Amino acid sequence: MAQVIVVTSGKGGVGKTTTSAAFATGLAQAGKKTVVIDFDVGLRNLDLIMGVERRVVFDIVNVIQGEARLNQALIRDKRIENLSILPASQTRDKDALTKEGVNEIIEELSKDNDFILCDSPAGIEKGALLALYFADHAIVVTNPEVSSVRDSDRILGVLQSKSKRAEEKRDKVKEHLLVTRYDPNRVERGEMLKLEDVREILAIPLLGVIPENESVLRASNTGMPVILDGESIAGQAYKDAVSRFLGQELPHRFLEPEKKPGLLRRLFGGRAA
Amino acid sequence: MSWLDFFRANRKPEPDSAAQAKERLQILLAHERIGRTREDFLPRLQQDLVAVVARYVAIDPAKVNVALDRGNDISTLAIEIELPSVRSAPAGAVEAARA
Q1: What is the span of the domain harbouring residue B60?
Q2: pLDDT one-digit tens code per residue, A221-233
Q3: Which pLDDT score is estimated for A1?
Q4: Can you give the CATH number for the domain in which B50 is found?
Q5: Residues 143-162 of A with CB under 8 A from B
Q6: What is the pTM of this model?
Q7: Residue A272 lies in a domain
Q8: Which residues of A are known binding-site members for ATP?
Q9: Is residue B94, in this structure, part of any structural domain at all?
């Protein structure tokens, strides 16, 4: 039986798809058979972030409506073994997803995968509710910013009341906080919520902190999940988060500002990396 | 410290906006979390109240009003049950319980 993980946030643009791509890739790199599903029907983007946009033939809606078999719609990643992607439909709307249809897909994928990652759309409408319904784990992606924290809190409430586990009164969905776009320099200047503040307010276990980093945009430009950029601090932070998810205990990194360049460097040395 | 910092120090210090963010969020979420549970328990509370009171007095279930009023420091739960006017009892008796 596979474990189902939803990557969710409520708010849009905080890094759900970046996280889904990185996390799925990281789990597969760790030898786990992993499939990542894009639930953002109508606005698919996971294919683009994973660099498989030109290989999409069928999508999740085709499978639900019986127009294609699941195996035809799954795209196997060419870089990483054990990793496949089920894209969302670009032309239909969210009503094309049904609970029964998604249930069948997840059951079938459960047979030969270790992890099923569900990349949730923003909001708390049907697509988002279906993405989290079957979850065993929820990775709540949060920016250190008021609207993102508020929406994360809201989505935690939804997880506790509208997930299958909540409906069946089983153990609740396991929650993991992932703070993204964290900028230690701005935190130090008092311009950004501190990690400790976000933790205190949301009060769920911390899985990782991804620093604001140029490598994330570079990765999306090239369609390569940022975790594959092992040199970058964002890539390393994602790798740590995946290891922690798999049970390893690692200290959180990249929480302090990098050393400022000296005066001469600032005057003559050009831009810092 | 470089000579540039001398000019920086002369600028007005900006208020710590992150602290404001934290405070605003804590107040807002405290309220929103109550709102979340309210959806759950108020209708059931109303049903239970009607059932209990109806054991002793004939009441109209439609004339039971349960309201939660959220204030800054304290919140009040107001339960208002209108009793039907019976000839032997004073007309229009309204019982309000506050908790």
Answers
A1: 23-82
A2: 999 999 999 999 9
A3: 87
A4: 3.30.1070.10
A5: 145-146, 149-150, 153-154, 157, 161
A6: 0.80
A7: no
A8: 11-18
A9: no
**Structure tokens, A156:** 């935690």
Number of domains within chain A: 1
Total domain count, chain B = 1
Angle subtended at Cα A83 by Cα A81 and Cα A89, rounded to the nearest 5 degrees? 145
pLDDT value of residue B91: 42
Does residue A221 belong to any structural domain of this protein? yes
Residue A111's H or E segment, with its range, is helix A99-111
- Determine how many CB atoms are found less than 10 A away from the CB of residue A8: 30
Q: What is the pLDDT of residues A154-192, one digit of tens each?
A: 999 999 999 999 999 999 999 999 999 999 999 999 999
Question: CA A144, CA A191: separation in Å to the nearest integer?
Answer: 10
Structural domain harbouring A206: 3-251
* Pair A8, A138: CB distance under 8 Å: yes
Residue A201 lies in a domain: yes
The mean pLDDT value of chain A amounts to 94
Spell out which residues of chain B touch residue A191, defining contact as CB-CB under 8 Å: 17-18
CATH number at residue A246: 3.40.50.300
Whether A262 is in a domain gets the answer no
pLDDT value at residue B9: 59
Q: List A residues 87-146 in contact with B (Cβ-Cβ < 8 A).
A: 145-146
Does A191 sit within 8 Å of B17, measured CB to CB?
yes
- Chain A partners within 8 Å of B18 (Cβ): 187, 190-194, 197
Q: Which residues of chain B have pLDDT under 50?
A: 88-99
